[in-house]
Amino acid sequence: MADAVAAAQEELRRSAQRRARRLRLCGTGRVMNDVTLDAPDTLRAYQARLGMWVFLATELMFFGPVFLGYAVGRLHMPQAFASAARHTDVLLGTLNTVVLLSSSAAIALATECQRSGAGRLARRLLWVTAALGAAFLLIKGYEYGKDVHEGLWPDASFHPADMPDADGGRLFFFLYFFATGLHAIHLAIGICLVLLVARQASSMAAVPVMRRLETVALYWHFVDVVWVFLFPILYLAGRAS
């Protein structure tokens, strides 16, 4: 009987030691308890994710008409849209696609690092994500300047060379500037959110930061997915025909 009691006490002691195991965040000098890291916070996390999904669903109301307008225009003026698409800079578009996909990989790695307790590494990866987003906007700004210089701004002075249907080309570039401009605004918002979370990544309790980081990462991936759809229809479709 005494042996059984002693064994039970030893098991309880070991269990308590396991639960009290401490994790030291990378280079911060701050210590968190596993109980803190694993504390049930499912309701708030669920509410945050649900709120972001609802928000992203409303965002589709902005981009949905753009894709629909493109589909209708392409259906009725296929040659004009194909000719206009060949005037976009596919090299800059491809470069921006690589930059944005790299940013998605960076924020995904940041999420995993924060989840494993490597707050400082997560913070650095978030800075990389924001820097890549800023690089995308700089490249896009340069491309806009190049487009305007070539007479591709869809106003009364629209005068691109080698484009037989000016009206169809004007409609294409209206959709081009509207869609990519709307996307750039969303990306700029995403950069601000990433920088905000980056400030907290190595300085706050893991659960609140993880909840915010996962929500921001979801928004960032949404912005990237929108570009993945915009890139082929604006840059590649005309060259494939």
From TrEMBL:
GO molecular function: cytochrome-c oxidase activity
A Gene Ontology BP annotation from the UniProt entry: aerobic electron transport chain
Keywords recorded for this protein, A-Z: Membrane, Transmembrane, Transmembrane helix
GO cellular component: plasma membrane
Membrane topology classification: Multi-pass membrane protein
Keyword Ion transport found: no
Superkingdom of the organism of origin: Bacteria
Transmembrane segment boundaries: 50-70, 90-109, 121-139, 173-197, 218-238
Domain Heme-copper oxidase subunit III family profile positions: 49-239
Localization in the cell: Cell membrane; Membrane
Record flagged with keyword Chloroplast: no
PROSITE patterns: COX3 (PS50253)
Pfam families named in the record: COX3
Recorded family membership: Belongs to the cytochrome c oxidase subunit 3 family.
Annotated protein name in UniProt: Heme-copper oxidase subunit III family profile domain-containing protein
Species whose genome carries this gene: Bordetella genomosp. 8
